[in-house]
Design goal:
The strands form 2 sheets. The protein has a 6-stranded mixed beta sheet with strand order 6-7-8-3-9-10. It has a 4-stranded antiparallel beta sheet with strand order 2-1-4-5, with no helix packed on it. 35% of the residues lie in helices and 24% in strands. It is globular. It starts with 11 loop residues before the first strand and ends with a helix. It has 9 helices and 10 strands. It has a single domain (37-48, 79-250), classed as Rossmann fold, CATH 3.40.50. The chain is α/β, with parallel strands linked by helices. It has helices at 50-54, 80-86, 101-115, 126-132, 149-161, 179-196, 207-213, 231-236, 241-250; strands at 12-21, 24-34, 39-43, 65-70, 73-74, 87-90, 167-171, 199-203, 216-221, 224-230. It binds adenosine-5'-triphosphate and magnesium ion (MG). Magnesium ion binds at residues 50-51, 203. Magnesium ion binds next to helix 1.
């Protein structure tokens, strides 16, 4: 066996990224590599630019200047529907379409097959996606509008899995949920990343959540990336004074 382990290409690389939303300069000179195959937490105070950044990663927005690459390719060179199949977005408050849970899941899978340029793409069955997201497969026949908040968030994760994604982006996926429900969902996200070799990028306000779920943490403040590194190091020995201040303030 080869003893030299090649460094993996980052999932995403941002270089000199500037972003403006409305009249607010939300991202300033962002240079960041997001490692592949890890659970990456994006943390920082309200207004830091976390949502602005994560929205660039499946082209919900494009930056006003600078470059974003995915898996080594300029992100805008990737057919956008295929990009969004590969890079699934789970929102804070998921929207379910009318119909059953299975209808919602199969709709996502149909879109994926229509979008893909990989004719042999293998996507999961609804029962499998539900199981992976920690939902009883019997839920497939439930009315999607009748679900509780926690069930809805799990089903939205299952729906994201229906496109056989490579990356899962989550913007505050647990902030609308009770802490115990949130903790279970985080455990599910972590095990998904491991079993499906997904790259996960999760925005969270809760530092204990970032610490529990992520292997890599990016700390942002005022539109800039202050520090990015292994989660354990970031929490136990942050190098930047502003990271240290934030950790102390949040305790
Ligand atoms: N569409 C918009 N129009 C005008 N200003 C915006 C818009 N979206 C965001 N902003 C502003 O840009 C800044 C960064 O917002 P962003 O949503 O990226 O921060 P965030 O870190 O996700 O914050 P939060 O933790 O509150 O979700 C904030 O000051 C916000 O008010
Ligand atoms: Mg936000």
């Amino acid at each position: 066996m080869n003893t030299i382990t090649a460094e993996r290409v980052p999932a995403f690389s941002l270089r000199q990224v500037q972003q403006v939303r409305g009249d607010v300069h939300t991202l300033r000179d962002v240079d960041l590599d997001i490692p592949a195959g890890e659970v990456v937490a994006l943390v920082g105070p309200s207004g830091a630019g976390k949502t602005s950044l994560v929205r660039l990663l499946n082209r919900l927005d494009d930056p006003v200047s600078g470059t974003v690459t995915y898996d080594g390719a300029a992100i805008e060179s990737i057919y956008v529907r295929e990009l969004r199949r590969k890079i699934a977005f789970v929102f804070q408050v998921p929207v379910m379409f009318d119909g059953t849970v299975a209808d919602n899941l199969l709709f996502a899978r149909d879109l994926a097959h229509a979008a893909t340029r990989t004719p042999t793409l293998r996507t999961p069955e609804p029962a499998e996606a539900l199981r992976l997201a920690g939902v009883d497969p019997e839920f497939a026949s439930r009315d999607a509008q009748s679900l509780s908040g926690g069930e809805r968030q799990r089903v939205s994760i299952a729906r994201a899995l229906m496109t056989a994604p490579e990356v899962l982006l989550l913007d505050e996926p647990t902030s609308a949920l009770d802490p115990d429900v949130a903790a279970h969902i985080l455990a599910t996200i972590r095990s998904l990343a491991d079993t499906m070799h997904l790259t996960v990028v999760m925005v969270t306000h809760r530092l204990e959540e970032a610490r529990a779920v992520s292997t890599h943490t990016v700390f942002m403040e005022a539109g800039t990336v202050i520090e990015s590194g292994a989660t354990e190091t970031m929490f136990s020995a942050p190098t930047q004074p502003r990271t240290r201040d934030f950790l102390v303030r949040q305790r």
